[in-house]
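Notes from the 1:1 (GR / supervisor)

We went over the backlog. Supervisor wanted to see one worked example end to end before approving the batch request, so GR pasted a single chain during the call. The sequence is below; no edits were made to it. Supervisor asked that the structure be written out right there so they could see what the output format looks like.
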Amino acid sequence: MSSTTIDPTPSRREPGGPAHAAGGSGRPAGLSTGPGPSFPRVLNAEFIKFRSLLSTVILLVATAAVIVGIGALASWGIGQALQSSGADPQRSAALAAQGDIAASAPGAGISFAQLILGSLAVLIISSEFTTGMARSTFTAVPRRIPAFVAKLIVVAVSAFVVTAVSLYISGVVAVPIFEQYGHTLDVSSDHYWRTLLINSAYVAAVAAIGLALGALLRNSAGGIMALVGLFFVLPIALQIIQGDVVKELRKYTPDSTLTPMTASQHLPDTLEAWQAALVLGAWVVIPLVLAGFLLKKRDV
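Structure output shown during the call:
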């Protein structure tokens, strides 16, 4: 005599039974180790997560305000210095030796922008490990690297665009300030646009480094402190310590690569522009590759 077992929830079963729902492996479908969604969908999901956080919007607006505000203050200070140097030939010569000092005013807030956006990049990935969202992210994207690359693209592109737009607005604001002191700032010149694009790419590179630090340390405070140490504490320490070796080493810190790339001519005791670009690229690529490798190897 045979017995019949009635499934209490027949509507929840897959058409092919449990083995079909698990892909033949006996595992729940939600834990599938398959390739996951396509990269465009992963990228779109990361962009949605990025723009839906209020803290992200606040930090991006703060970055723009800092760049424009400090650029305006720098323009006012440089304008006064240029005006007063007319009666002091020695001071005028010292300012002339610095090149087109007026063109550097709109980018005076870059050091603060890199701290804000670099910290934001750390939080983008470290917060997922803190809150446990990383388990959901990497369950949906089992290969992990596509999700990491998507975060990198979102962070780097956002940092570049926000910085570029803010620098342009800062330049527009600086024009009437310099005119009050009898000087001009040409925001349509090739040198100005070259400086704007290089500054924006540099901040995007800092954001990429921040993302790598967040993935490596998986801790928000630790990642931000590592970023601050690399871009603020280390340069100060190398300035204090004397010696030819330290002086040479100072050229290869990431913060020292910006000046050679934006200078209108090669400055003494600095790298060539192409050398500085290679050094900055190494500071970006090596941590990102290491972070991606460990992201694949370590448990979530």
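Supervisor's comment: Residues 52-297 form one domain.
Batch request approved.
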